[in-house]
């Protein structure tokens, strides 16, 4: 731009410095962004239930074989063998005796770590039955093998609820969006505005009403009652209508009218036009709406906590919260392990589809 | 060109099998929906939940009108969404409005009729009533029965099971009691004594003349204790003779204390154990303004809610924009990798993120506090000091929220035409002029509505407040009303409604919800005006 080469070179040198500075800022930003993630990985791999560890990769206790003939003796022996003080949480020992899993609680200042009896071995006095937690994966092991806290069940519940909700939301809202985008009828503007305003009602407190309603419905149609997957899906789908209708309408508006007009002239019905023509055309953005909806439902916590009472009907987030909300038995390591598994679906979706999601988020705002 | 919604002529001419099938499917679906709805309405009416019966009836009516009336073709596409919204959003909303005008809460959980029905179950043993001697029997199922001996009538026997009583046949007056009678076994004296505690709570005989155990020797005919007098709208306690009048409305008694509403109160000032739901007018709303116990925390919580939402938007937007600008520079190595890593916080469920941060900030054990302590400094009291708690929550929200604005700003920056920058450079603008004169204004046009949306989102960002410390540390000055220094309006309302030692106060919580709704709706309307959306919709009509 300038014909004078001298200032140009000076500018280059300055911009090299600026570039270095920028990279340094970005590296600092990445550290800020990833530090909690590293910490949670570390906590998940830490066999002790502490929520702090001095090193990122926690030290692994030596494997020891201890002998005991009763759970009570196990406690004493484990206390003697695995001499390591835990300040934080109460410890839970899982003991399998003849196939039956029993839970023991260690005293708060106990010297004990997670202990599992190796599976498949018989129980007899004097046998070397117990090996003290000796694996980085002990938290994952506990997570999947605690009948009192059915993690796999929670994962399944969350997946089912999120999947069914997403399919219903995408289908029902795309019908409405098609109508709002393609038909002109009286009251259309006011209806859209009404939907938008109703949507911002903080439904947290409407929970009293939702709770009572599900309770009543459940008395006659148990499938949609409290504590059921069906009931929660109904609540989620109903609550997701407004915002998604708006989002979808934006997408439908971006499809040129000529396409469906020519189809209609050729004698296609509106349904055929919608289902065979428009729906496939907007499928990429429908996928984005679906993903946002799936992630939102998968991670929803407040409604699920109130409406699901039974441990077996809990979703992943409700269950995970249970690991750390208990004031007396916070299982940070297990929570961290569960958090990693719970975050993986969202993480994969967001990182692989980041460009599409940006498009979905900024639709309507940036294009204006 | 736009389509006429009514009576699309093309459909009528294209009459064929497809149309018949389609219409058949619609009518079949309608019949199924109607049948289910009628069943629900019937069941709700029987249960006495009128509000739900009416809601379902209105929704069903709406669906039927839309699908059966000609000229509502466009609405048919919207009907499923509308029905779901009415049931799951509009009904709870209307219900919340209703609750905000009542005293619904702990101590006032039932309707007046329910309370009257409940009280009607209370019985007492009137003086001068019929008295029997009793012996206890029990069958194999564990049910008890009473052998009643009417001493006044010369040892006539009655046998009273749960729900029925009949004179004994086949046993002469004055004879020994049989060991077994009608499948019931007579309990020995010791067994009777042990079981009498449980049996004492049971009411034998028919509902019209209930019999109960009054003492170790006597059983008697109980009478209904509380009788509702519709004329006086009061409940008469037949045991003491006191009249408990129903109280409604708002007001203060002579001592200046808030008058109890929705209670049965006697002249002596005693209240019956259960209150009922009563309308209290605008009392819940007025309590904001008049009650110092609420007004104090309310003002501070409102200020913090606005401050929290504003600070969150400004901080996340600033940091997101900074990163987006840095990532725009094509000379940065590993740009894509940097961007991907910086999105990570956005992809982790908020609940999990807050829990992780909470663990890291823990003053005793948290890794951040330990790191600070390692430098010989005192770790900040993130969960004790109000200022630090607010700082902590904003820090976490910054971490959670900046990737969103980073993504959005990246998109918006890319949309700014490059020739505008070239023109600016030709004019000799420096980077500051370019940024504030060109980039920021262009960006704000695009991102402005999202900033407002983010503000309203954070205004009601319940999860982060609840997960951080349930609103804590508590406001000591707040006294009996539970409130915390990091509480925002919605979390405070939640605490009033569902928790706290003081018990649930759904009425006040609902009133707060309505106020929040009005505030957020106003902001949303403003955003709507700002967005092109309104004009776009208007032009197309």
Commentary on this structure:
Chain A has helices at 5-45, 71-81, 138-144, 151-182, 188-199, 207-220, 229-253, 257-265, 270-281, 283-299, 302-307, 316-325, 332-352, 354-362; strands at 65-67, 91-97, 100-106, 115-117, 128-132, 183-184. Chain A is mainly alpha-helical. Chain A has three domains: 1-45; 65-135, no CATH class; 151-362, MetI-like fold (Orthogonal Bundle). In chain A, strand 2 and strand 3 (100-106) form a beta hairpin. In chain A, helix 3 crosses helix 13, helix 5 crosses helix 7 and helix 12 packs antiparallel against helix 13 (332-352). The longest helix of chain A is centred in the N-terminal third of the chain and has 41 residues, at 5-45. Mean pLDDT of chain A is 72; it is low at 1-9, 61-134 and 364-368. In chain B, strands 3, 4, 5, 6, 7, 8, 9 and 10 form an eight-stranded antiparallel sheet that branches. Chain B has a four-stranded antiparallel sheet with strand order 12-13-14-15, with helices on one face. A two-stranded antiparallel sheet of chain B has the order 2-11. Chain B is elongated, with a radius of gyration of 35 Å. Chain B folds into three domains: 16-100, Up-down Bundle (Methane Monooxygenase Hydroxylase, Chain G, domain 1); 123-224, Periplasmic binding protein-like II (Beta Barrel), CATH 2.40.430; 290-533, MetI-like (MetI-like fold). Chain B contains 18 helices and 15 strands. With 541 residues, chain B is an alpha+beta fold. Chains A and B meet through helix 1, helix 4, strand 6, helix 5 and helix 6 of A and strand 1, helix 2, helix 4, helix 8 and helix 9 of B.
């Amino acid at each position: 731009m300038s014909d004078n080469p001298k200032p140009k070179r000076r500018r280059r040198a300055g911009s090299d410095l600026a570039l270095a500075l920028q990279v340094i800022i970005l590296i600092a930003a990445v550290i800020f962004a990833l530090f909690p993630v590293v910490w949670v990985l570390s906590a998940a791999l830490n066999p002790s239930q502490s929520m702090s560890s001095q090193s990122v990769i926690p030290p692994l206790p030596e494997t020891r074989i201890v002998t005991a003939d009763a759970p009570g003796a196990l406690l004493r022996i484990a206390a003697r063998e695995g001499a390591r003080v835990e300040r934080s949480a109460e410890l839970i020992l899982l003991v399998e005796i003849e196939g039956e899993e029993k839970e023991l609680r260690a005293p708060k200042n106990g010297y004990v770590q997670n202990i599992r009896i190796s599976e498949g071995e018989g129980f007899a006095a004097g046998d070397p039955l117990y090996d003290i937690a000796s694996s980085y994966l002990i938290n994952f092991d506990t997570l999947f093998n605690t009948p009192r806290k059915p993690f796999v069940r929670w994962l399944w519940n969350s997946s089912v609820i999120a999947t069914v909700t997403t399919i219903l939301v995408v289908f029902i809202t795309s019908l409405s969006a098609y109508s709002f985008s393609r038909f002109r009828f009286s009251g259309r503007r006011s209806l859209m505005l009404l939907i938008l305003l109703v949507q911002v009602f903080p439904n947290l407190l409407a929970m009293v009403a939702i709770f009572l309603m599900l309770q009543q419905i459940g008395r006659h149609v148990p499938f949609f009652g409290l504590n059921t997957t069906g009931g929660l899906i109904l609540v989620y789908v109903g609550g997701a209508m407004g915002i998604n209708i708006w989002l979808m309408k934006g997408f439908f508006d971006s499809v040129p009218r000529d396409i469906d007009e020519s189809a209609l002239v050729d004698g296609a019905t509106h349904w055929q036009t919608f289902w065979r023509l428009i729906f496939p055309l907007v499928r990429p953005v429908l996928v984005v709406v679906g993903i946002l909806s799936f992630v939102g439902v998968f991670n929803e916590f407040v409604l699920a906590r109130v409406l699901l009472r039974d441990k077996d009907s809990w979703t992943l987030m409700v269950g995970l919260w249970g690991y750390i909300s208990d004031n007396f038995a916070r299982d940070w390591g297990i929570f961290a392990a569960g958090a990693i598994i719970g975050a993986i679906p969202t993480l994969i979706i967001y990182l692989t589809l980041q460009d599409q999601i940006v498009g979905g988020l900024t639709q309507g705002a940036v294009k204006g | 060109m736009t389509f006429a919604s009514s009576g699309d002529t093309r459909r009528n001419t294209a009459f064929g099998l497809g149309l018949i099938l389609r219409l058949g499917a619609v009518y079949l679906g309608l019949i199924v929906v109607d049948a289910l709805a009628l069943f629900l309405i019937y069941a709700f009416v029987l249960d006495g939940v009128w509000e739900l019966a009416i809601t379902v009836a209105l929704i069903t009516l709406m669906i039927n009108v839309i699908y059966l009336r000609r000229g509502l073709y466009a609405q048919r596409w919207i009907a499923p969404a509308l029905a779901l919204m009415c049931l799951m959003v509009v009904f709870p909303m209307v219900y919340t409005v209703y609750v905000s005008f009542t005293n619904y809460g702990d101590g006032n959980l039932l309707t007046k009729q329910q309370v009257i029905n409940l009280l009607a179950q209370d019985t007492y043993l009137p003086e001068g009533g019929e008295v029997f001697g009793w012996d206890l029997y029990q069958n194999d199922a564990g049910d008890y029965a009473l052998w009643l001996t009417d001493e006044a009538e010369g040892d006539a026997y009655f046998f009273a099971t749960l729900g029925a009583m009949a004179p004994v046949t086949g046993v002469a007056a004055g004879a020994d009691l049989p060991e077994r009678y009608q499948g019931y076994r007579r309990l020995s004296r010791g067994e009777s004594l042990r079981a009498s505690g449980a049996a004492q709570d049971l009411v034998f005989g028919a509902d019209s003349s209930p019999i109960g155990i009054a003492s170790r020797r006597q059983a008697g005919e109980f009478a209904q204790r509380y009788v509702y007098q519709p004329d006086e709208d009061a409940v008469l306690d037949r045991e003491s003779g006191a009249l408990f009048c129903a109280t409604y409305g708002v007001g203060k008694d002579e001592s200046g204390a808030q008058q109890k509403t929705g209670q049965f109160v006697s002249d002596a000032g005693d209240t019956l154990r259960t209150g009922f739901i009563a309308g209290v007018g605008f009392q819940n709303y007025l309590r904001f303004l008049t009650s110092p116990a609420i007004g104090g925390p309310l003002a501070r919580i409102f200020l913090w809610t606005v401050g929290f939402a504003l600070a969150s938007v400004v901080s996340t937007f600033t940091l997101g924009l900074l990163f987006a600008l840095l990532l725009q520079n094509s000379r940065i190595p590993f740009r894509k990798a940097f961007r991907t890593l910086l999105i990570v916080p956005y992809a982790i469920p908020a609940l999990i993120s807050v829990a992780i941060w909470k663990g890291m900030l823990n003053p005793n054990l948290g890794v951040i506090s330990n790191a600070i302590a390692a430098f010989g400094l005192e770790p900040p009291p993130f969960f004790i000091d109000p200022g630090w708690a607010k700082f902590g929550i904003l820090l976490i929200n910054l971490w959670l929220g900046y990737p969103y604005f980073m993504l959005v700003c990246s998109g918006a920056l890319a949309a700014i035409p490059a020739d505008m920058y070239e023109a600016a450079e030709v004019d000799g603008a420096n980077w500051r002029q370019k940024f504030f004169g060109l980039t920021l204004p262009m960006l704000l046009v695009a991102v402005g509505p999202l900033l407002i949306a983010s503000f309203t989102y954070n205004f009601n960002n319940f999860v982060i407040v609840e997960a951080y410390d349930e609103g804590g540390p508590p406001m000591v000055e707040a006294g009996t009303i539970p409130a915390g220094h990091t509480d925002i309006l919605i979390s405070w309302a939640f605490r009033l409604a569902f928790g706290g030692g003081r018990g649930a106060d759904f009425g006040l919580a609902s009133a707060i919800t309505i106020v929040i709704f009005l505030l957020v709706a106003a902001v949303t309307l403003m955003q709507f005006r700002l967005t092109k959306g309104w004009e776009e919709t208007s032009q197309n009509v």
